[in-house]
Write a structure and sequence with these properties.
Elements lengths: L26 H7 L9 E2 L8 E2 L5
Antiparallel strand pairs: 1-2
């Protein structure tokens, strides 16, 4: 897809149905919901069923 990772991590094989939910977001979303703040560690919900997704790093 030609994505450049700015912070955090990409999804990988450890991100499966039984794993803690994770999400990859872009700079636009990070700036819109957490302007001037670090998005890592935040949570985001969508209209999709299920728990909020954590924005995390594997480091």
């Amino acid at each position: 897809m030609g994505l450049t990772l700015v912070r955090g991590r990409f999804l990988n094989d450890a991100d499966h149905e039984d794993a803690m939910p994770a999400v990859v977001i872009n700079d636009t979303m990070a700036g819109r919901y957490w302007p001037g703040e670090d998005a890592l560690g935040r949570q985001s919900s969508s209209r999709r069923a299920g728990p909020p997704r954590s924005i995390r790093s594997s480091h």
